[in-house]
Amino acid sequence: MKEAILYDRIPGGDVHCRVCAHGCRIAPGASGRCGVRQNDGGTLYCTVYGLLVARDVDPIEKKPLFHFLPGSRAYSIATVGCNFTCRNCQNHSISQYPREHDGRLVGDAAEPGEIVEDAVRNRCRSIAYTYTEPTIALEFYLEVMRRAKDAGLANVWVSNGYFTREAADAVVPFLDGINIDLKAISDEFYHHVVGGDVRPVLDSIRRVHGGGVWIEVTTLLIPGMNDADDELRRTAETIAAVSPSIPWHVSRFFPAFRMMQHPPTPVETLETARRIGLDVGLHFVYLGNVPGEGEETHCPSCGAVVIRRAGYLVLENRLSRGTCPSCGTRVDGVWDTARDASYRVRS
Questions:
Q1: Average model confidence (pLDDT) for the chain?
Q2: Strand extents, DSSP E, the chain
Q3: pLDDT tens for each residue of 83-124
Q4: To the nearest whole percent, how much of the chain has pLDDT over 90?
Q5: Is the pLDDT of residue 346 over 60?
Q6: I need a labelling partner for 89 at 20 to 30 A (CA). Which of 133, 260, 262, 314 fits?
C-alpha cells in the first residue's frame, strides 16, 4: 500500500479522490469505484502499489499504436481493478477482480527499478501501462515512468481517458504515447455499457494532445449500440477537430463478459466507419481485429503504402526519417527514438 496523491480529507473521516473523473467520496474502510483506492482511517491508499497481475512483452502494435516506434517491443504491465464496468470487457478477469471477489487483491510484488531493468533486458523500447486502466495505480506507475525515462525508455498508456486534469498534469511530463478508448460519442452508451460519461474522455483527448503526447484513438464498434452512420460521423468529426493526424482504430467486437449473446461486428460496418473517417478529414483510419489492407499506413498526400502490416507484425516500413519515399510528405508519428525531443509532433 502507498498513500495516494490527489485527494482531499473531509471532516468526519471521508476522503475525496481526485485521480479520475468519478471523483469518489470514500468512507473509512471503503474503496472507490475502481476497487483499489481505499480509505484507511481518513488516509487514501493505492492498495495495488507494486502489485502486478500481468507482465508481458508485446509488439507495440498490440496496444494498438501504429504510429509509435513501429515494430518495437513494449514491456506491458497491469494491476487488477478498473474505474469502469464495461459489460463487454475482454480483460474482465483482472479489471473487475476486486469488484467480483469482495475487494480481494491478487498480484506479484514488483519494484519500479526491477521493471525497468527487465524491460531493457528484453530489448523493449517502451513500457506500456495496459490491460486495465492505468489511472487507478497512478502512484506506482509514475515511479516506474520516471525511472523508465532515465533509462531512455518511452512510456505509453492504454487508457479509457477517464482521468482528471490534475492526473494528466502529473503524467504528461513522463508520457510519450497513449491510446485512448473513445467507446462512443454518446452519454447514453457510456451510462448503459461503461459506467461513466463521455465528456471527461473527450477532455482527456484534447488535454494530452495539447501536452504534446502522441495519441491514437480506438472505438470498438458494437452492432446496434454505437455503429450508426451518424454516430460514426460525429465520432470522427470530434477526433478530427482535435487533429486530423490522430489515427482512429475502429475495431471489431466479439462477444465477451456480459455481452456473450451479442453478435460480432460485420466487417462491412468497419469499412463504412473507415470511409466516414476519411471523408471527414482524418488522415489515418485502421480496421482492428480484421487483418488485411485496413492495417496499412498510407501517405496522406499521395496515398502510397508506407507501412505494411499483418496483425501485429510489421512486414515493411518504407518511411525515411518519417517521410514518404514517394512524395517526401511528412507522415505524423513517433518514428525515432524517444530520447529525441522531436517525437512530440503535433499538427
A1: 95
A2: 2-3, 7-9, 15-17, 25-26, 37-40, 43-46, 51-52, 54-59, 73-78, 108-109, 126-129, 154-159, 177-181, 214-221, 248-252, 285-288, 297-298, 305-310, 313-317
A3: 999 999 999 999 999 999 999 999 999 999 999 999 999 999
A4: 95
A5: no
A6: 314
Under 8 Å between Cβ of 46 and 140: yes
Q: Are 257 and 90 in contact (CB under 8 A)?
A: yes
pLDDT of residue 337: 53
3-state secondary structure (DSSP) of residue 242 = helix
Bridge partners of 252, per DSSP, are 221
Pair 252, 288: CB distance under 8 Å: yes
CB distance 9 to 109 below 8 Å: no
Provide DSSP, 255-289: --GGGTTSPPPPHHHHHHHHHHHHHTT-S-EEEES
Q: CA 328, 334, 339, 345: dihedral to nearest 10 degrees?
A: 80
Q: What is the longest distance spanned by two Cα atoms in the chain?
A: 67
Residues 279 and 240 sit within 8 Å (Cβ to Cβ): no
* Per-domain boundaries in the chain: 2-46, 51-296
Q: Architecture of domain 51-296 in CATH?
A: Alpha-Beta Barrel (3.20)
For residue range 25-69, list pLDDT tens digits in order: 999 999 999 999 999 999 999 999 999 999 999 999 999 999 999
pLDDT higher than 80, residue 152: yes
Q: Where are the beta strands (DSSP E) in 114-163?
A: 126-129, 154-159
* Of the candidates 84, 315, 272, 329, the residue with the CA atom closest to the CA atom of residue 193: 84
Q: How does DSSP classify residue 45?
A: E
User: Cell digits for 292?
Assistant: 488485411
Q: How far apart are CA 52 and CA 105, in angstroms?
A: 10
